[in-house]
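Reading a protein record of the kind used here takes only a little practice. Each token is a code from a learned vocabulary of local backbone shapes. With that in mind, consider the following protein and its fold in token form:
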Amino acid sequence: MQRPPILDPRAVPVTGADSDLLAIDPARLTAGALRARFLAQPAWQVEFPGDGRLIDREPAAASVLLPLVTRERGLTLLLTLRTDHLHDHAGQISFPGGRSEPQDASAADTALREAEEEVGLAREHVELIGELPTYTTVTNFVVTPVVALVSPGFTLRPDPFEVAEVFEVPLDFLMNPAHHRRHAFESPVGRREFLSMPWRRVAEAGEAGQSTEAREYFIWGATAAMLRNLYRFLAA
């Protein structure tokens, strides 16, 4: 029996959060500290290598970019909200990225190309600092997460077909396991667990075109799992 998809992750019961785990020290969430961590990698264990197959297909290589923007207030992670009409992962929050193409020289090249195509992030603003172990999605994409620092001053041009919105989340929020919620989805073929990291954004006073009402961005699934792997890497 084929495993059913999760159509509404917000409705899946929360079984707990990981408040017992320590948040990453802010001193380790600076550009310099991250460069040093990837240069001298510790021994560590990947927590989420993948989330099992939903469909039966041949594996395909893909890459995503984890773009950490060096803001004065601290690093932020640039994420995308996918448009609702897409065939795969419609309306979900994702990293910029996609399938590897024959012309790509490396996983990092795929991530940079896809970030340019999806959101218009120019390579001149991007400093690659390392990669995390691959993550295999339910659609059998073997994804390489490529971590990069992004200098401010860039201008984004999101592809309106793929991207409904681009936004930034403080890295210290995402690297605090108290914000990592565990969900359990029960189906006739068994139990599936996944993480979510809901983040509520309130526009700053006077921010152009933005309501001051809080808005929730529901980060879950593969995106949350790869962020949890980043947490494990930084916590090791």
About this structure: Residues 26-235 form a domain with the Nucleoside Triphosphate Pyrophosphohydrolase fold (CATH 3.90.79.10).
